[in-house]
Design goal:
- Helix 2 (57-80) packs antiparallel against helix 3 (86-115).
- The mean pLDDT is 90.
- Helices cover 44% and strands 0% of the residues.
- The relative contact order is 0.19.
- It has helices at 6-11, 57-80, 86-115.
- The structure holds zinc ion (ZN).
- Zinc ion (ZN) binds next to loops.
Length: 135
């Protein structure tokens, strides 16, 4: 059985240990987009490793928002030329950040789990169809 790549696991918001179980129970733009599962449905890893663990995702999210604001501000400048109204920039940037907020929320947690937590490691032994074997 082929192993799951880290890219596909990150894009599909899968568990960092087995790359099989879903981290979130809701859909990206559903009303319940913020529901994070307590444990991986495949390998039973606890996602909130310690109390307050996901506060760390705020820093990742902050980096996302800064990058998005700079990119969208620059694009607005390039598209509208020399329109110097600050309200144009405020309106466009705040709308874009609002629209992107479910993505920021979700992928800040995914990146925190996959890349920024040294004790969480991918374990190929869990990356199998045989769900119950390693639990
Ligand atoms: Zn898992």
């Amino acid at each position: 059985m082929a192993k799951t790549s880290v890219l596909s696991a990150v894009l599909q918001s899968k568990c960092p240990r087995c790359r099989r179980g879903k981290i979130f129970s809701g859909s990206l733009y559903g009303f319940n987009f913020q529901n994070t599962n307590d444990n991986c449905s495949h390998c039973n890893m606890k996602f909130e490793i310690e109390p307050g663990y996901f506060y760390g995702a705020m820093y990742v999210s902050y980096a996302f928002v800064v990058g998005e604001m700079l990119t969208i501000g620059l694009l607005t400048y390039l598209i509208t030329g020399n329109d110097t109204s600050p309200w144009l920039y405020i309106g466009v940037i705040l709308s874009a950040v609002l629209i992107l907020s479910p993505i920021n929320y979700r992928y800040s947690r995914v990146l925190l789990l996959h890349f920024l937590t040294p004790k969480v490691k991918y374990n190929p032994e869990y990356d199998t169809d045989d769900k119950g074997r390693n639990i």
